[in-house]
Amino acid sequence: MLIPPGKTVEVTVTSANAYHLVHQTDANSKIAYTLLGAEAVAFFPGDYGKAFPLSVTVEEAQWRYAAAGEHTDQLTFTAEYKDA
Questions:
Q1: Does residue 1 register a pLDDT over 80?
Q2: ∠ at Cα 1 (39, 75), nearest 5°?
Q3: What was the pLDDT predicted at 49?
């Protein structure tokens, strides 16, 4: 995507579960996590091919007390095209 001068594309991320992985069968069983790298995602003119690596961290205590089974969350990425 080529962005013209004076414009930018800013990307925000939201979590359906407030950045918690929720157990598939017990919604009260959650694992808190932090999404890193999504704090300042923006594309400017000349940023062709630019990437923003994302990673997830979970505190050891969260893993220690997590219930066995599948946990999920849904992240929504919203791109906004606007004036720089």
A1: no
A2: 35
A3: 87
